[in-house]
Amino acid sequence: MKILFISAHPDDLELCIGEFIYRLNKIHDILIVSATRGEWGTVNNKLKGKWLAKIRENELKDAASVHGVESKKVKFFNYVDGGIKFQNQIINELNTFIIENKFDAIFAPEYYYTYYFHPDHMNLGKIFLYNIFKLNKHSRPRLFFYHSIYNNRFIRVNMRRTQKAIMKHKTQILIIGFFIALRPIIDLLNGIRSKKLLFAEAVREVDFENELQLKLPFIYKIIFNALKIGKIFERPWAAEEDQL
Ligand SMILES: [Zn+2]
After folding, report:
1. How many A from CA of 8 to the centre of ligand 1?
2. What is the C-alpha to C-alpha distance for residues 242 and 212, in angstroms, rounded to an integer?
């Protein structure tokens, strides 16, 4: 099987689903793509831009090697960090990419039922769902979302390997520190949800027939309204929902 792992930034996959990459790489043809090079991902203004982009490219390749993925299987699109919008040009470019590559499965950031509210992540997930929805039922790849709150696929985590891969993203030490502290809690909650594992990584496989029936938890609506960020969460294809 041909499997795509797509992320908005170079460190997203290790933070969420490194173990899925490790396991699936053993038996399938894996491609890792980061849509941006994360060139603005630092608080230090002097480091921002091309220099950081180059370093983060290598960090992702190093992290992928922890999962056994060769660096030639790690690619980058040229989108601007912070600039992934749900707009026609990006939608069409990614649609061509999806159709040309004929993936059997795609792992993308959760667009809606997420616990990580970065617009790049959410828009990228939306674009993948939107494009795959439009495909003929029989030619759709399976679609899995990571950092989701509605997970339905679980695997046991190897904590040491996961942390080793995360630590390759050295320029992201602030986020990494936060996530390394948080990961065992997330993994434990996933494990409880799985009903058979102690610590688990988890993803949500999209059920295309019922995707639009899923509802956002009520508490989210209160939070979004309070933060005035509700617009990001509007479903972009509302007018087309009847046809989906
Ligand atoms: Zn990210």
Report:
1. 5
2. 10
